[in-house]
Amino acid sequence: MPEVLIDGKRLDFEDTEGDSTLGDLLRAVESELKAIRRFIADIRLDGQSSGDWRTGGRFRSPLYGFSEISIETGSVDAAALEGLDTVTEYFKVIKGEISACVRDSRLGGPGADKSFNTVFEGLVEIVKTIEALAGCADAFEIKLFSENPENFYLPLLKNLEALKDARTAGDPVLVADMLEYELTPFLNGMESRIFRCPEA
Amino acid sequence: MGVLENNLAAIRRKGGTDLLGEAGCGAVTIEAGRKGEPTFKYNGKYFHSLYEPLKEAEAQADEILSKKPDWVLLFGAGCGYLLKALIGKGHERIIALDVPEILNSVLKSVDLSEWLSKDTVFLCSDMNSVTEKVRNFTDGFDNLLCYSTTPYRVSFPERLLEFTNRVHNAHTTNKVGIRTDIDSRMSWIENYFDNLRSLPLHPPIDSLKGRFKDVPMVIAGAGPSLKKNAHLLREFKGKALIFAAITAYKPLLNYGVVPDFIIASEKVDLPEYFTFGEPDRKTRLVLAEVSHPGMFGRDVKGKFVFYNPYVGLSVAQAKHWGSSYFPAIGGSVTTAALDIGIMFGCDPIVFVGQDLCFGDNETHAPGGVYVAQNVRIDREKGEVVIEEDYVTLKDKAVSRFPLQWLKGQSGRPVPSKFDWATFHQWFENYMANLRKEGSPVKVINATEGGAYIEGMEHATLKSVLERYVKGAFDIDAVMEGALKDRKRVDFRGLLDSFQSMRKGLENIRKGSREILRETARIRKGLDKKGLSPGLSRNAERIKTAEEKIFESSGPALFIWESLVSNTYGLKEYLKNSDEGISVEDRFRKDLDAIECSYRKVGEMCAEFMPRVEAAIEFIQAEKEKNCRAGDPENPCVDCKCKKEAANA
Questions:
Q1: Which chain A residues contact residue B59 at CB under 8 A?
Q2: Mean pLDDT value across residues B538-559
Q3: How many alpha carbons lie under 13 Å from residue B250 in its C-beta half-sphere?
Q4: Rounded CA gap, B290 and B190, in Å?
Q5: What CATH number corresponds to the domain at position A24?
Q6: How far, in Å, CA of A165 to CA of A5, rounded?
Q7: What's phi and psi for B198, nearest 5 deg?
Q8: Is B214 in the same domain as B168?
């Protein structure tokens, strides 16, 4: 039987049948943690960090194969706040890239293409992160967003498609106009509406 | 007045002409942006922001002005936002070009008159006008910045390239002009004085004015392609007037062609260009008054003189030599030959050997002074290296030049260098003016290769000669008539001119000394008390002395030409005034510059005074000689001859 530690404290765990898997253990722990709004942040198997514990064969590995399983937990609320910070930071960076792209498109600077790609990829990342946060918020019943982010996905997609068309047409003025006068106000609105503090 | 009339009136007020060119079916439609400001699409692309076009232009203007240009050369003015932004930020030196597809629509729909009425804001519709504006309004010291917004760059890459090349070439020409001034002005003045003894002997070129009415003239340059068609000229000798640049003389002889005229204006002697044999005695020289005196000593059938419009001495005295014609000259003798051909009444005027670019490993046609050549063109470095054996040199001469590009006859760019690009530009400008004046004279470029010259017809020499050469003409009879009708030299006028020149030189010398005394006083005061208000009185006295100098220079104005390198030095000094230097140090530097300048002025006056004295003596003697010869127009001072004649 392996020794199981949670945040450094030993957990009494019995594998009576001797056929429990790592997945069984983690599911049980997760279920316990959920009640106290925590989650598994990392696990170390025999002293080795295991990034892929949720996937693949590890999850199905029998417990008897390990001598020590160390579980690190994290606070759901703290993680959600950190996620929000990341999204906010993403928005800031993307808006900076939009400004650079607008400037280069209007002045014919050499960085227009690079900035454009960064804006595109960055927005996809923002959506992915918001999606992940939304999933977490649902699971733990946290009210992370003042407005459902999904409301913004379709208009954002339309903006991005129009931008792509303008770029394909080789129209730098239109690209700059769309970035500056359409996408930027849209992102500002999205940011302020989904992250709005509840009114006192 | 409508929008178009407003715009055109603003352009015309500055002497501009109608800008509406052939737009064809590609004219743009002006549409309103989100706030009503005009914009347009060309080839599916917007040229101005739909939202805030002026803000967009202001960012572009900031970008431009951060480079501190003296002039902005704008390819594409569009709806004028960038003009407005630049002017709004205090920059009013702009030369803009737009394509007819856009310009026509904009001028009809957008009122740009407020910006176009500025004295130094120009809007052009063709490349020649751009060249002309760069030549006439900017100088070689100016920092020129070519700019184009992205839509123009993307939509008109070839026209933008031509625009940039044109501006570059025109700017190079301005720089070359400065270099020529610095290198040549002094020699020209010295040559003029040295040639005084020759000028009475040879008629001015305008003695032949109108004497070759409708005779075809072939002007031969020494470009590499001369070898392709020079042989054709042999059978047309006596039927077309053959006018050769001095460099083309020997190459033409190789093909059995003795030109009727050879034109030369070099400030140095070029004996190597002559045969010193029979061919020389069959041709006539057309020489600039400032050519090297040695050129006036060549043994040829006859000599004619042309006077330069940019030499102060000639401008003051040409009329006394019997000339009222100053040819338009673009830096080469073939440019002068074109204007002379028009003055002669020739039609058509046909160029051969006017490549204005490098041939296959050669700069000139074979048979001249260049025995062997090796031309290496480095496109990446933008440089050309020429190695050549020159007839009079023992070793190979190596020279390198920045590469310039001209539009070739095939439509593709051809490699050139600064001097040829300068001549090319001049030809195109000359042709544009000729057409503007409505001249019916046909000018044909029959150079079989090389640069395309806008405004000239391009054809093969064979076809041109077959088309236009009719019968023979008697050139000797024309010459005889011209010599017989030659205007008398006005020695009285020349004498007066040189005498007032002497007086002018004395006044300038006196004034310069006065200024030097004043600067010495200022320096003393400065060392004693530093910068003080009292010094302004000394500065005022310098200003007064300067004004007096200019007022009393009279015909001695040529002295400023002899000081041209100094003048350019001063100009550069003023332009590069050091920032961050203390007021007193700046004052001291200014004082140094003033002292240095007027010391040189004084030295130059002293140098030329004996030359003017000698000129007076010579003219006086010539006048008396003519008086004795019975010329009533040139009586001697006390007119002893007349009295003697009366007594007799």
A1: 103, 106-107
A2: 79
A3: 18
A4: 8
A5: 3.10.20
A6: 55
A7: -90, -30
A8: no
Please give the Cα distance from B569 to B646 (Å, whole number).
59
Contacts of A171 in chain B (CB under 8 A): 44-46, 151
Note whether B220 and B337 are within 8 A (CB): no
Report if residue B501 sits inside a domain: yes
> What pLDDT does B21 receive?
56
- B56 inside 8 A of chain A by CB: yes
Top residue of A103, A167, A168, A171 to mutate, by most chain B CBs within 10 Å, is A171
Digit-coded pLDDT (tens) for B588-604: 888 888 888 888 888 88
The answer on B463 and B504 residing in a single domain is no
pLDDT at A55: 67
Residues A158 and A183 in one domain: yes
A19 and A95 housed in the same domain: no
Residue A199's pLDDT band (cuts 50, 70, 90)? very low
**Preferred mutation among B31, B37, B46 to probe A, highest tally of A CBs within 10 A:** B46
Say if A113 is an interface residue toward chain B (CB within 8 Å): no
Chain A contact set for B47 (CB, 8 A): 173
Identity of the highest mean pLDDT range in A104-113, B133-142, B225-234, B388-397:
B225-234
Same domain, A71 and A85: no
pLDDT at residue number B168 = 87
State the residue range of the domain holding B608. Answer: 491-628
Q: Cα distance from A176 to chain B (closest Cα, Å)?
A: 8
Under a CB-based contact definition with an 8 Å cutoff, are residues B262 and B284 in contact? yes
Are B46 and A173 within 8 A, CB to CB? Answer: yes
Tally of domains in chain B: 3
Q: How many Cβ atoms from other residues are within 10 Å of residue B383's Cβ?
A: 14
Give the count of domains, chain A. 2
> What pLDDT band is residue B581 in, cutting at 50, 70 and 90?
confident
* Subunit contact B151:A177, Cβ cutoff 8 A: no
Is B149 an 8 Å CB contact of chain A? yes
Residues in chain B closer than 8 A to A107 (CB atoms): 59-60, 63, 150
Contacts of A173 in chain B (CB under 8 A): 45-50, 56, 150-151
B74 touches chain A (CB under 8 A): no
Q: How far is residue B552's CA from residue B501's CA, in Å, rounded to a whole number? A: 10
Chain B contacts of A176, Cβ < 8 Å? 49, 56
The pLDDT of B328-341, averaged and rounded, is 93
The answer to whether B48 faces chain A, any CB pair under 8 Å, is: yes
Neighbours of B92 (CB within 10 A): 14
A182 contacts chain B (CB < 8 A): no
Mean pLDDT of chain B: 88
- Percent of chain A at pLDDT > 90 equals 34
Question: Where do runs of H (alpha helix) occur along B110-225?
Answer: 113-116, 127-137, 150-155, 157-194
Residues B115, B18 within the same domain: yes
Q: Would you state the pLDDT for residue B140?
A: 85
Q: Quote the minimal CA–CA distance from A177 to chain B in Å.
A: 6
Q: Which residue is it, tokens 């008539």?
A: B481
pLDDT over 60 at B73, yes or no? yes
- In the predicted model, what is the mean pLDDT of residues B407-432? 91
The owner of tokens 């409708």 is B214
Domain that holds residue A178: 78-194
Q: What is the DSSP string of B577-608?
A: PPTT--HHHHHHHHHHHHHHHHHHHHHHHHHH
- Residues B131, B170: contact at Cβ < 8 Å? yes
Joined tokens for residue B45:
């692309």
pLDDT in tens, B140-181: 889 999 999 999 999 999 899 889 988 988 888 888 888 777
A200 in a domain, yes or no?
no
Q: Which residue of A has its CA nearest to B56?
A: A106
Tens of pLDDT, residue by residue over A5-52, are 999 998 887 777 778 888 888 888 988 888 888 888 888 988 888 777
pLDDT at B552: 74
CA distance B119 to chain A (A): 27
Task: Say which of B51, B150, B153 has its CB closest to residue A105.
Answer: B150
Of B279-288, B381-390, B395-404, B557-566, minimum mean pLDDT range: B557-566
